[in-house]
Amino acid sequence: MVTWQRFVLYIGMILVFGSSPLSAQWHVLEDSHFRIEYRPPAEQLAKTVQKTLHRVRLPIVSSIDYRPTAQTRVIICSTEDDFTTVTGGFAPEWGVGVAFPAQNLIVLKSPRITHALERLPTVVAHEYVHIVFGQAVAGKSVPRWFHEGLAMYHAKELGLTETLSLSWVSVTHKLLPLDDISQSFPAETNAARMAYMQSRSTISFIIEQYGEDHLRELVRHIRTTQQFEHAILLTFHYNLDTFEQNWRTYVRGRWNWWTLAANTSFLWLTATMLFLIAYWRKRRQTRQIIKQWESEEDWLGLSDEEYRDIWS
Q: I need a labelling partner for 312 at 20 to 30 A (CA). Which of 138, 157, 213, 283 fits?
């Protein structure tokens, strides 16, 4: 609790003094919706983040039915030290982005740190959902798993790796109780990853069993009621315990041994195809080199025996 209070105080100082804590070494790219701060030479990265934010903004604010009333501030950190300083050390070690809805602030690690440029659009969308939804339900008690599941849904975070992981947890009966991930997620990386996957699966359950309209209805009820459990009751006409039971049944049916076997086979097939492609390309490259050598022999006008003598 002391750490959290210190962090809130730190963010408050940043808001009071504007961008001064980041010094003149930081540059700014801004428009009516976003203020992006970065260190040179990350200007192109800042433009990419800005473009991504504008691409995802309307779908997210329309689905949640809330629009931030002020510029959302985005700070891109080019070093781990910058990230630790700006977040006050609040972010977990495995975190690549953090959102603070009350401060309308997103802090991102540069791909220079994460070495995962391909994940940048996903991370940006994920954190912006936290900003919009967090402000929409400000002051309400909403489980962490719903926050994260909603963010992952809008960021389209459910690939082959996640499917395999969730299938394994499902068939080995190691699903965490939702209550265990209502307040916080595990600090350990693998356990945290599974908490995220479970969270994402709760949104999949809602959409596949009831449709996206029910997800939007649930978000509306969360905004207009004081208790998350009451919002669940108004939307699905049963309580949170029944929601969890139905979700577990859904997960066991959706992510099971068949899913695991099918995707494992797909992985082996993909690996085999990649190996064959690499082998074919190597053979082709070798043939081209040999052909080039042969053409050089012809160009020299030497017999095979004379050509070999050059290298002897």
A: 283
